TrEMBL record, chain A:
<dbReference type="GO" id="GO:0034456">
    <property type="term" value="C:UTP-C complex"/>
</dbReference>
<dbReference type="GO" id="GO:0019887">
    <property type="term" value="F:protein kinase regulator activity"/>
</dbReference>
<comment type="subunit">
    <text>Tetramer composed of two alpha chains, one beta chain and one beta' chain.</text>
</comment>
<dbReference type="GO" id="GO:0006359">
    <property type="term" value="P:regulation of transcription by RNA polymerase III"/>
</dbReference>
<dbReference type="InterPro" id="IPR000704">
    <property type="entry name" value="Casein_kinase_II_reg-sub"/>
</dbReference>
<comment type="subunit">
    <text>Tetramer of two alpha and two beta subunits.</text>
</comment>
<dbReference type="InterPro" id="IPR016149">
    <property type="entry name" value="Casein_kin_II_reg-sub_N"/>
</dbReference>
<dbReference type="InterPro" id="IPR035991">
    <property type="entry name" value="Casein_kinase_II_beta-like"/>
</dbReference>
<keyword id="KW-0418">Kinase</keyword>
From TrEMBL, chain B:
<keyword id="KW-0808">Transferase</keyword>
<comment type="subunit">
    <text>Tetramer composed of two alpha chains, one beta chain and one beta' chain.</text>
</comment>
<feature type="compositionally biased region" description="Acidic residues">
    <location>
        <begin position="59"/>
        <end position="79"/>
    </location>
</feature>
<protein>
    <recommendedName>
        <fullName>Casein kinase II subunit beta</fullName>
    </recommendedName>
</protein>
<dbReference type="InterPro" id="IPR000704">
    <property type="entry name" value="Casein_kinase_II_reg-sub"/>
</dbReference>
<feature type="region of interest" description="Disordered">
    <location>
        <begin position="298"/>
        <end position="343"/>
    </location>
</feature>
<comment type="similarity">
    <text>Belongs to the casein kinase 2 subunit beta family.</text>
</comment>
<dbReference type="InterPro" id="IPR035991">
    <property type="entry name" value="Casein_kinase_II_beta-like"/>
</dbReference>
<dbReference type="GO" id="GO:0016301">
    <property type="term" value="F:kinase activity"/>
</dbReference>
Length: 268, 343
């Protein structure tokens, strides 16, 4: 233990896990309870995945006392980090784990959505695969329901399997109150206030898809979660209205000769 | 004013090399010197004349100074009092200069930004921006499914002071906050709302799905392949290459939420609601409303069967019908478009 201290130039005092989650680049991890780690059931199958499994586990649970050379210790240290990550993926979908990650989510520890229309909505870490060494960690935004690459390179080196493919979806099933209201807001490419034809047709098509979805949900009487719910779908043919609105806006622009007057709300 | 001898760097190039100003193009002096390009800016910028002089590195006219000096040389006889008075005058002037300098400096930055908004939409400016784009100066899209394609700096408003600069990803047609906080002090109006879309129409042959700076020289090669007019017609939607219309969207590039491998249903409260935002039709030609409309019109003429013709792709067809006049194809001739924007 003492030898190990001097080797990893950190001045940690007692707990490996404390040191691990507070070290730079590991901000996405939460601390796994001792109880969880010591329950063998929770570690089922990991012994085949991690090299020097027993030593690594000892290191993580602070009972490591093997006398060995530096190289060996380095390998065990690496295994310990890997083991911690894999247990982490299982831990964060437990009740306690979810609560801990929720706290971090609320503090926006995982960063904020880079999409402008999401208005800095906090992100959640996720993996695109549950198998290690496949894809690096990505960040999920619950508002636009898309995934993004972490800004910092030290985060994009973390294995996505340490968070798994399910956690960020489970958290919203467990805490449905957290589901953010969805919004129609979007960016429309314009030139001197006029929409560009090709992207505009695509956007119209997408809005058609959206309205179809909302009609489907309405038929099933399921809440769609849009902020402006129950407003524009009642008329049934909202697309035509939309089109008219757009035409009106363009006509206005043409009549007034105000190029800058393109109204972004006309799209909604 | 501040051009101490030995610094050949112009105000413009030093401004563009400042930290956080990496997105700016260097406006050519010819562009600034053409008064037409500055129409209306006089009222938007305080100390306009001084700011303009600063940008162009023109020494401000200092007739007063010269006169005084000449006077002094003549008035050598009353040296004592004259000297002190003159020194006081100079000091006063210097004080005024110092306090004004920061105002002029900030006006100059504002003026430069506003001219920049216009410049990057001009032929020379957009060319310069395309070089910066090729070198990846504007960063890459943070969206995972866009796979690191290059972005373009845009503003969400043309009025200064409203919002900071954003990055427009041509692959998903969305805007993002620049990853580095140093860009959060750069005004979005200095790039304007028009540049992003104009860039795509100006350079339709860029392969925007390529990532990083590696697409150098790819520009134009595609054109050679699809030179046959028949292929061209098929590949374009009103000046947009079909393969350049949001290549980062559509099947396989929409995130599919799963729990333990099972898709989360749309019917779940936490189910997916925003897929439309990242979706696109499998066959993009479906979007070519004008051409389809032309075809529909023809078949209507032939068969006189309105209902039969309407069962084609989407309902949007019906909607677009009212707004557009039939001219047998695209509302704007593709050829004319190309000529207009030929880089």
């Amino acid at each position: 233990m003492d030898d190990f201290n001097s080797e990893t130039d950190s001045d940690y005092t007692s707990y490996w896990r404390d040191w691990f989650i507070s070290s730079r680049g590991n901000e996405y991890f939460c601390e796994i309870d001792e109880d969880y780690l010591t329950d063998r059931f929770n570690l089922t199958g990991l012994n085949t995945e991690v090299q020097y499994y027993q030593y690594a586990l000892d290191l993580v649970t602070d009972v490591f006392d093997l006398d060995c050379d530096d190289e060996m210790r380095e390998t065990i240290e690496k295994s310990a980090r890997h083991l911690y990550g894999l247990v982490h993926a299982r831990y964060i979908v437990t009740t306690r784990g979810l609560a801990k990650m929720l706290e971090k989510y609320k503090k926006a520890d995982f960063g904020k959505c880079p999409r402008v229309m999401c208005k800095s909505h906090p992100l959640l870490p996720m993996g695109q695969s549950d198998n290690p060494n496949v894809k690096a960690v990505k960040l999920y935004c619950a508002r636009c329901e898309d995934i993004y690459n972490p800004k910092s390179s030290r985060h994009s080196a973390i294995d996505g399997a340490y968070f798994g493919t399910s956690f960020h979806n489970i958290i919203f099933q467990v805490y449905p109150a957290l589901i953010p209201t969805k919004s129609y807001e979007r960016y429309t490419p314009r030139i001197y206030g006029f929409k560009v034809h090709a992207p505009a047709t695509l956007i119209r098509w997408q809005h058609g898809e959206r309205d179809d979805m909302r009609r489907r949900l309405r038929k099933l009487e399921i809440e769609s979660g849009f902020k402006d719910d129950e407003e524009d779908l009642d008329a049934g043919d909202s697309e035509e209205e939309e089109e008219e609105l757009e035409d009106e806006a363009v006509m206005e622009v043409l009549q007034n000769g105000q190029l800058a007057a393109g109204d972004p709300t006309a799209q909604v | 004013m501040s051009s101490s001898s030995g610094t050949p760097e112009s105000w413009i190039s030093s401004f563009c090399s400042l930290l956080g100003h990496e997105y700016f193009a260097e406006i050519s002096e010819d562009f600034i010197e053409d008064d037409f390009n500055l129409t209306g800016l006089q009222t938007q910028v305080a100390m306009y004349k001084e700011a303009l002089e600063m940008i162009l590195d023109v020494e401000p006219e200092e007739e007063d100074d010269d006169e005084e000096e000449e006077e002094d040389e003549g008035d050598e006889s009353i040296e004592g009092e004259g000297r002190t008075i003159r020194r006081a005058a100079i000091e006063r002037r210097h004080n005024r200069m110092d306090s004004n300098l920061s105002i002029i400096e900030s006006s100059a930055e504002m003026l430069y930004g506003l001219i920049h908004q216009r410049f990057i939409c001009s032929r020379a400016g957009i060319q310069q921006m395309s070089e910066k784009y090729e070198l990846g100066h504007f960063g890459v899209c943070p969206r995972t499914f866009c796979d690191g394609v290059r972005t373009l700096p845009v503003g969400l408003s043309d009025v200064p002071g409203e919002d900071t600069v954003k990055l427009f990803c041509p692959s998903c047609l969305d805007v993002y906050v620049p990853p580095n906080s140093r860009f959060q002090t750069v005004d979005g109006a200095f790039f304007g709302r028009t540049f992003g879309a104009l860039f795509l129409l100006t350079f339709p042959d860029y392969d925007i799905s390529k990532k990083g700076p590696d697409s150098l020289g790819a520009h134009g090669s595609r054109n050679a392949i699809t030179s046959a007019s028949d292929a061209d017609d098929k590949e374009k939607i009103n000046g947009f290459n079909v393969n350049n219309l949001a290549p980062g969207l559509g099947r396989g590039k929409v995130y599919e939420p799963k729990i333990y491998g099972f898709k989360v249903s749309e019917r779940a409260r936490s189910g997916p609601r925003m897929k439309w935002l990242r979706d696109r039709p499998v066959d993009l030609i479906e979007l070519d409303e004008a051409t389809i409309f032309g075809a529909v019109e023809e078949s209507e003429d032939d068969a006189g069967n309105l209902n039969g013709a309407r069962t084609q792709p989407r309902q949007t067809l019906g909607a677009s019908k009212k707004g557009r006049k039939p001219n047998g194809g695209s509302p704007m001739s593709i050829d004319a478009n190309e000529q207009q924007f030929a880089g």
